[in-house]
UniProtKB/TrEMBL annotation:
<keyword id="KW-0408">Iron</keyword>
<dbReference type="Pfam" id="PF13442">
    <property type="entry name" value="Cytochrome_CBB3"/>
</dbReference>
<feature type="domain" description="Cytochrome c">
    <location>
        <begin position="70"/>
        <end position="156"/>
    </location>
</feature>
<dbReference type="InterPro" id="IPR050597">
    <property type="entry name" value="Cytochrome_c_Oxidase_Subunit"/>
</dbReference>
<feature type="domain" description="Cytochrome c">
    <location>
        <begin position="169"/>
        <end position="254"/>
    </location>
</feature>
<dbReference type="InterPro" id="IPR036909">
    <property type="entry name" value="Cyt_c-like_dom_sf"/>
</dbReference>
<keyword id="KW-0249">Electron transport</keyword>
<protein>
    <submittedName>
        <fullName>Cytochrome c553</fullName>
    </submittedName>
</protein>
<keyword id="KW-0479">Metal-binding</keyword>
<keyword id="KW-0813">Transport</keyword>
<dbReference type="InterPro" id="IPR009056">
    <property type="entry name" value="Cyt_c-like_dom"/>
</dbReference>
<keyword id="KW-0349">Heme</keyword>
Length: 351
């Protein structure tokens, strides 16, 4: 007996299959318990699909320079605070709780070598659905993602001693132990006990900064009104008393402040007088050496950090609404000639 296939019969078959699938989902027979795990074929299919997706979207996004090995301390600090609980770290096993997830977070010492730098960048930036792997808290901070790629690329060969040195587990004795200092250990891991950023180009000097500015920055980081995935994770757990105490603690340290600067030259012109013809105000009209409210002190700040922030503010967007307070610096940064960013940063650093 021959059954003739028609469009009507094909449609009825598809609708029947769809109805059966909906009935199966409605019945609740499918076990969604993490404790049940996946069938081997299900696990293979999901990972195969994920790898194909990452490969394709990495090519579509076309990431340039996906790895930056120069910011290992800030990347390691964020990894210690936000990632090690699931993935483990040198000398530290992943939490048994997260190992009970389906799927559990992979051992990065095994999986990192199987991905390219561009693919790792895409995964860290966008996360992976249905795995518990989150996207980076702010998609605008590609520089932070690049530094994390640089860090995890070294994980498979990193010793316990090297890891502990990066996250500053050792040498933290003598720190205040008052209740408000709960977040201090995490802070000094990157910023150092002296507030000078452990000599890292991507970490700012906090010593001597205005206390009210530091406190307000912690609030903005925690609420993602100031973009930084690293600082958002550090600031979010802090309560108001802790933020206030930490801000006062670092502000009381020596670091930022005045000092003689040249009064001639192109960098001095922009800093001291601006370029009215280009609608570029003088930097010191807001950022004077004493720290005029509500602006931060940048005299004595690390030149590499100032330059990075200016380039981050310039960004890739072509339209900025200058009426929004958070968009003032992007507008100003775009009016500074690219070739003047580094000299201007060095001028404020006093180099």
């Amino acid at each position: 007996m021959t059954i003739r296939v028609t469009w009507r019969r094909a449609l009825v078959a598809l609708l029947t299959l769809a109805a059966a699938g909906m009935l199966f989902a409605w019945s609740g027979i499918f076990n969604v318990a993490a404790s049940s795990g996946h069938w081997a074929i299900t696990d293979w299919f999901l990972h195969w699909t994920m790898r194909n997706s990452v490969r394709t979207h990495t090519l579509l996004e076309g990431v340039e320079s996906p790895r930056d090995p120069s910011g290992l301390i800030s990347a390691a600090g964020h990894f210690e605070q936000s990632c090690a609980v699931c993935h483990g770290a040198p000398g530290q096993k992943a939490s048994p709780v997260t190992r009970s997830a389906t799927p559990p977070a992979p051992d990065l010492t095994e999986t990192v070598p199987t991905w390219t730098d561009a693919q790792l960048f895409w995964i860290l930036k966008h996360g992976v659905k249905y795995t518990g792997m989150p996207a980076w808290p702010t998609l605008e901070r590609k520089d932070e993602v690049r530094r994390m790629v640089g860090f995890i690329r070294l994980l498979p060969e990193m010793s316990v001693t090297e890891y502990r040195a990066l996250v500053a587990h050792d040498g933290q004795g003598g720190l205040p132990t008052v209740p408000e200092a709960r977040g201090l250990v995490a802070c000094v891991g990157c910023h150092g006990a002296d507030g000078r950023g452990r000599g890292q180009g991507d970490i700012p000097i906090l010593g001597g900064q205005r206390a009210d500015y530091l406190e307000a920055s912690l609030v903005r980081y925690a609420n993602l009104r100031r973009e930084s995935g690293v600082m958002a994770a550090a600031a979010a757990p802090l309560d108001p008393d802790e933020r206030r105490w930490l801000a006062s603690y670092f502000a009381a340290m020596p670091g930022l402040g005045g000092g003689a600067r040249p009064t001639s030259g192109a960098a001095a012109e922009i800093a001291l007088r601006g370029r009215p013809s280009d609608q570029l105000p003088a930097c010191v009209s807001c950022h004077d050496a004493g720290g005029r409210r509500p602006f931060p002190v940048i005299h004595g700040q690390r030149a590499s950090y100032i330059a990075q922030r200016l380039r981050q503010w310039r960004g890739e967007e072509t339209v900025v609404d200058a009426r929004k307070p958070q968009d003032v610096m992007p507008v100003i940064a775009r009016r500074i000639p690219e070739e003047m960013i580094d000299p201007l940063a060095r001028w404020f650093a006093g180099e």
